[in-house]
Design a protein that fits this description.
It is a multi-pass membrane protein. Its main location: membrane. This is Major facilitator superfamily (MFS) profile domain-containing protein. Keywords: Membrane, Transmembrane, Transmembrane helix, Transport. This protein is an all-alpha fold. It folds into two domains: 195 residues, Growth Hormone, Chain: A (Up-down Bundle), CATH 1.20.1250; 189 residues, MFS general substrate transporter like domains (Growth Hormone, Chain: A, Up-down Bundle). The chain is 77% helix and 0% strand. The chain contains 17 helices and no strands. Helix 9 runs parallel beside helix 16.
Length: 414
């Protein structure tokens, strides 16, 4: 968030009043709910994909346009964040809150349009609107918590994302079996509307705690100069490509595994609950492994979890059992879960503090293209070779994430 937290301290470590401490906690809690809604959005798609294909009579490639259009919205919002962060400035709570509420309102509009089950082109375009809002909230929220340099808070923040993604398939699976399947998005709209109200109350109506981001020397850097510095920082691009592949794998598993279980393993309509198990594992891993993350450190933890998840993916590939696959998928989520917040924490460790929020905006812009690129590629390949091609593709992508992580610097270079 470009808004401030009373729990962040600078080198001067100013004293905080009780009111400021409470404000900081409320701000963090509101971000947790925001990430719950983002997770709800991402977890809804998988169980609904087979029904969307049935209703609109589209193949794997065409239905995958949902991921592409959503990605375009995410990239647009993330790039805008690079400029808006500096225009608003930390400490200007009211302006930042208005922008965050605008992003939240984008989601409200998108979900309302999706609930109407409009013709397929309009239905798909609505995902651009939701993607735009989600990108802005995600970049600002992660940048805000990364500045805290608190492993626990980052883990909890993204655990709420996993919680939302875990709960939503329970609902969307039920709606996918009914005539009015698109009414699922009315629930999404209600949750997003509550998000808007919370931001108004917490960030607009409450007072400012006065935190300022540390600056290089004393001079403030403008957006263009910061972007130039980001473009020259090798670590930013390596983390961005790592996130690109990681998010692509995360969304592909959550989005296409249900279809794989139905068509390859012979699962029934309730196969959507496999997605719940996956995102449940994702949520649990982001909380349960916090202690191990601290003992291992970001670098070794991500490497270990990536190797374990890769091994479990081979189980899904070669064990022809619905129950066995469902359990393995849940454990894949468990070990993949901590990797994103660990990467965000690593940004706070190795990147200059005066470009953290902007850098995370750029990382999201590049990284979250994976949320469209790999699921779309999966759909296109499945159209030609069948959905059984999902497993070897995921194995290859997981290997690439491990290699990329090994290339990322482990110490700050500023």
């Amino acid at each position: 968030m470009t808004v401030v937290s009373s729990e962040i301290t600078t080198d001067s470590k100013p004293s905080r009043s009780h009111k400021q401490v409470i404000l900081g906690r409320l701000q963090f809690a509101s971000l947790c709910y925001c990430f719950f809604v983002i997770g709800w959005n991402d977890g809804s798609t998988g169980p609904l994909l087979p029904r969307i294909q049935e209703v609109y009579h589209v193949n794997f490639t065409v239905v995958s346009l949902i991921f592409v259009i959503s990605c375009i919205g995410i990239v647009s919002g993330s790039i805008l964040n690079l400029f808006v962060s500096d225009k608003l400035g930390l400490g200007k709570v009211s302006l930042a809150s208005l922008m965050m509420n605008t992003a939240s309102c984008c989601q409200n509009v998108a979900y309302l349009l999706q609930s109407l089950a409009l013709p397929f082109p309009a239905f798909v375009l609505s995902f651009f609107i939701s993607g735009f809002g989600i990108a802005f909230e995600g970049a600002q929220g992660s940048g805000f918590v990364a500045a805290l340099k608190d492993h626990t808070k980052m883990g909890l923040l993204h655990a709420f994302y996993g919680l939302g993604a875990m709960v939503s398939p329970l609902v969307s699976t039920q709606f996918s079996q009914h005539k009015h399947w698109s009414f699922h998005y009315l629930i999404s709209c209600g949750l997003s509307l509550l998000d808007t109200i919370i931001f108004l109350l917490v960030f607009l109506c409450l007072s400012d705690s006065g935190y300022e981001v540390p600056k290089k020397n004393i001079d403030d850097k403008g957006a263009i100069e910061k972007i130039r510095e980001i473009m020259k920082t090798k670590a930013v691009h390596l983390i961005a490509f790592f996130i690109l592949v990681y998010v692509g794998v995360e969304v592909t598993i959550g989005g296409w595994t249900v279809t794989y279980i139905i068509q390859v393993r012979g699962g029934g309509p309730s196969s959507g609950y496999v997605s719940t198990g996956y995102f449940g594992g994702l949520t649990l891993g982001r909380v349960a492994l916090l202690w191990l993350n601290q003992k291992l450190g970001e670098s070794r933890a991500v490497l270990l979890y990536g190797i374990i998840a890769l091994g479990l993916q081979f189980v899904v590939w070669f064990v022809p059992s619905i129950i066995g696959d469902a359990i393995a998928v849940a454990f894949i989520g468990f070990f993949l879960g901590p990797m994103y917040p660990l990467a965000m924490n690593h940004c706070g460790r190795i990147l200059p503090p005066w470009i953290i929020t902007n850098s995370i905006g750029w990382i999201n812009a590049i990284g979250f293209t994976g949320s469209a690129l790999i699921p779309f590629m999966t759909g296109a390949i499945a159209q030609r070779w069948g959905i059984q091609s999902l497993q070897p593709l995921l194995v290859i992508m997981m290997c690439i994430t491990t290699i990329l992580w090994l290339c990322i610097p482990k110490k700050q270079d500023f």
